[in-house]
């Protein structure tokens, strides 16, 4: 049996595989992949020396731990043919946005189920994964799954009812942050900075500010206050953000993503 198999070998599967290989959790020959797109299969096999499966069904027969990494809209056409091949000592890790453990259990009669909401920065080992286990999950399974996602960044075990919120915040969050980064860089260009310089300044500013929060534990409000001198420049910028309803827009963005998650 392969240690792990990926149903769908797109962006997120690739990010997880990079983490596994980079941290030497498993070797390429212990990782099975299947993707409906033959060019994608070729790319994954050539780049990561992973093992191609002939079909999702074969994968289900041959992988001890199966990662569901297709789009949620594709899952209903994939799972009915995969589920009958799963037996009681296999495990299924789903990264499908909006798919509850209960919904998954409707397809999988056997096997342990885990739900994970990773995020795109897993690609560079800076991911944030929210993870929910079934109450019956064994300690061995918990360790295996935590090790896999810790190899792509940080992990947080959450009760399942919090997973849609986590998905809308940290799962979708890189898209919002990228919009903010782009706006910051556009602003720099407007004020005369070269484009490449503006991106570098914007990206490192986001990374550095996040690092201060993570490393000092300071509240975002305290960090803002450390930057805004009385009568200075930054507080004028903060005032303009408030006038633009930046906070309300972000809160609305996450709420919109939660509502969409519930539709999937
Ligand atoms: N992209 C992101 O930032 C995040 C995505 N997710 C979840 O991860 C999952 C995968 O997303 P991505 O990797 O972004 O999508 P993707 O589109 O990059 O990858 C999906 C892959 O599935 C393949 N595929 C389509 N039909 C198939 C089939 N019948 N059998 C096997 N493979 C098939 C596609 O060819 C594609 O390579 C989704 O369920 C999404 O909700 C979760 C967190 C973050
Ligand atoms: O937008 C999506 O469907 C996925 C789920 C979380 C991040 N991206």
From TrEMBL:
Q: Which PANTHER family match?
A: PYRROLINE-5-CARBOXYLATE REDUCTASE (PTHR11645), PYRROLINE-5-CARBOXYLATE REDUCTASE 3 (PTHR11645:SF0)
Biological process (GO) annotations held by this record are:
L-proline biosynthetic process
Q: What is this protein called?
A: Pyrroline-5-carboxylate reductase
Annotated metabolic or biological route of this protein? Amino-acid biosynthesis; L-proline biosynthesis; L-proline from L-glutamate 5-semialdehyde: step 1/1
Gene3D superfamilies in the record = NAD(P)-binding Rossmann-like Domain, ProC C-terminal domain-like
Q: Which Pfam families match?
A: F420_oxidored, P5CR_dimer
Q: Does the keyword Metal-binding apply?
A: no
* Record family assignment: Belongs to the pyrroline-5-carboxylate reductase family.
Q: Sum up the protein's function in the record's words.
A: Catalyzes the reduction of 1-pyrroline-5-carboxylate (PCA) to L-proline.
Organism of this sequence:
Gehongia tenuis
- Residues reported in the UniProt entry to bind NADP(+): 7-12, 69-72
Asked whether the keyword Cytoplasm is assigned, the reply is: yes
Which reaction does this enzyme catalyse, per its entry? L-proline + NADP(+) = (S)-1-pyrroline-5-carboxylate + NADPH + 2 H(+); L-proline + NAD(+) = (S)-1-pyrroline-5-carboxylate + NADH + 2 H(+)
User: What keywords is this UniProt entry annotated with?
Assistant: Amino-acid biosynthesis, Cytoplasm, NADP, Oxidoreductase, Proline biosynthesis
HAMAP family documented for this protein: P5C_reductase
Which residues belong to any copy of the Pyrroline-5-carboxylate reductase catalytic N-terminal domain? 3-98
- Enzyme class comes to oxidoreductase
